[in-house]
């Protein structure tokens, strides 16, 4: 079968790209291994809500219009939002069509799937950055009999065996899961490495409102000092909740969660931790305050100081004085290790030489290092908000324009031959 463009993945990024191609009258299909919003349906925990307020759920030609713009979509609501978007945009989704190979040919790309083969002039990879939960190699030395669960596998506290839990990772997933497990009766210890602290509400407004209004979310990728670094920083310690509560390390400590440093290994039944936690927390507080400084400066410049709460700063992260550098897991009653250590993309089916030594796509703002190949839905792809629903929509507008120019250039070149 022939088509101008194949989009791989029917999540929010793939659907956004589809709508942008549709408005440009570029014929295309979306190949999806499962169904629309597959990852949201099958690879998220039950209580998860979006980290962004509902009003920030914006896609090309579509946005949240419900009764609670300042709330946070639950997973069922997020799935319904995306399914509705696919329906109203008549997205050409081919469900249960797993891509097994993508390779170049004389006309562009040959795409093999479990439901047949496609020939396309362009391919858009919209499979996202969260295909596989990353478990560090040191996990191989875990004590025998210890349960190991990833944030991708986790659904609710009921699936966790009785006893304590060591949560490894303190970004958005780690802090939210640690809170839920602690509240459910598990004694939680959280191993903290690099993280970015952020308040849910600042000066009376959601932190994402400030980041959107002040232009932080629109910071462009080509104006960042260290782009590689920016693309791999941890997610903000945020959670969506009706109470708009801040879920940072101080909040967890007040609940009784025990803090330790970054996990560096296992030996003789003991978990070993770095002694860098005080420095990590001080650095995180510094980054948070830099963000708040930028927000305050923007508010003053735009005359908002009298319309919102006054500027203030939050108590520094409270780091325990008795930090262990080793912990006997069995003696501490820990029976489960929860890996909230991030994700990795899976391009095992991609037979085009565009991957770096770590298996990541080499690209310039989503334009991959092969003609007619694009990627969307990755962190800081073209702007700071690229991994958000709203950011994927903005990126899709840019990339669809580039794709259209590429196709027009190919047509001109062919006509002149």
The major beta sheet can be summarized as: 7 strands, mixed
Q: Quote the CATH topology of the largest domain.
A: FAD/NAD(P)-binding domain
Count of helix runs: 9
Q: Which second-level CATH architecture of the largest domain applies?
A: 3-Layer(bba) Sandwich
CATH class of the largest domain: Alpha Beta
Spans with pLDDT under 50 lasting ≥5 residues?
Answer: 412-417
Structural class by helix and strand composition: alpha/beta
Q: What is the number of E strands? A: 23
What value does the average pLDDT take?
A: 96
**Helical fraction:** 25-40%
How far apart are the first and last residues' alpha carbons, in Å?
A: 26 Å
Q: How many whole angstroms does the radius of gyration measure?
A: 23 Å
- The global form is globular
Domain count: the total is 2
The proportion of residues in beta strands is 15-25%
Walkthrough of the structure:
With 417 residues, the protein is α/β, with parallel strands linked by helices. The protein has two domains: 2-131 and 345-416, FAD/NAD(P)-binding domain, CATH 3.50.50.60; 133-339, FAD/NAD(P)-binding domain, CATH 3.50.50.60. 27% of the residues lie in helices and 21% in strands. Helix 1 crosses helix 9 (389-416). The longest helix is centred in the last third of the chain and has 28 residues, at 389-416. It is globular and about 65 Å long. The protein starts with a strand and ends with a helix.
């Amino acid at each position: 079968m022939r088509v101008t463009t194949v989009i791989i993945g029917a999540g929010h990024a793939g659907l956004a790209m589809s709508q942008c191609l549709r408005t440009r009258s570029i014929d295309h299909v979306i190949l999806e291994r499962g169904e629309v919003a597959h990852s949201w349906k099958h690879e998220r925990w039950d209580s998860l809500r979006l980290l962004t307020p509902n009003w920030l759920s914006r896609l090309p030609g579509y946005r949240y219009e419900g009764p609670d713009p300042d709330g946070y979509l639950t997973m069922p609501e997020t799935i319904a939002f995306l399914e509705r978007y696919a329906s109203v945009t008549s997205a050409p989704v081919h469900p249960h069509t797993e891509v097994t190979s993508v390779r170049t040919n004389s006309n562009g790309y040959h795409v093999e799937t479990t439901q047949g083969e496609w020939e396309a002039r362009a391919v858009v990879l919209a499979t996202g950055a969260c295909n596989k939960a990353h478990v560090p190699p040191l996990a191989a030395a875990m004590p025998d009999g210890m349960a190991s669960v990833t944030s991708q596998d986790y659904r609710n506290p009921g699936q966790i065996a009785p006893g304590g839990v060591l949560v490894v990772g303190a970004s958005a997933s780690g802090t939210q899961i640690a809170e839920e497990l602690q509240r459910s009766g598990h004694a939680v210890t959280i191993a903290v490495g690099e993280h970015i602290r952020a308040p849910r509400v600042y000066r009376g407004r959601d932190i994402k409102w400030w980041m959107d209004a002040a232009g932080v979310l629109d910071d462009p990728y080509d104006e960042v000092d260290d782009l590689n670094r920016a693309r791999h920083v941890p997610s903000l310690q945020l959670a969506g909740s009706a109470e708009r509560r801040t879920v940072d390390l101080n909040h967890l400590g007040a609940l009784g969660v025990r803090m330790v440093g970054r996990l560096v290994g296992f030996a003789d039944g003991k978990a070993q931790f770095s002694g860098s936690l005080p420095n990590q927390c001080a650095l995180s507080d510094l980054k948070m305050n830099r963000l708040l400084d930028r927000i305050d400066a923007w508010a003053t410049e735009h005359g908002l100081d009298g319309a919102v709460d006054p500027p203030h700063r939050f108590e520094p992260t409270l780091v325990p004085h008795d930090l262990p550098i080793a912990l006997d897991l069995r003696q501490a009653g820990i029976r489960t290790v929860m890996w909230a250590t991030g994700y990795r993309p899976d391009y095992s089916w991609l037979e085009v030489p565009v991957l770096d030594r770590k298996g990541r796509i080499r690209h310039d703002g989503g334009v991959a290092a092969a003609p007619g190949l694009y990627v969307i839905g990755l962190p800081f792809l073209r702007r700071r908000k690229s991994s958000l629903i709203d950011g994927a929509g903005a990126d899709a507008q840019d990339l669809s324009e580039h794709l259209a120019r590429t196709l027009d250039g190919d047509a001109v070149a062919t006509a002149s031959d």
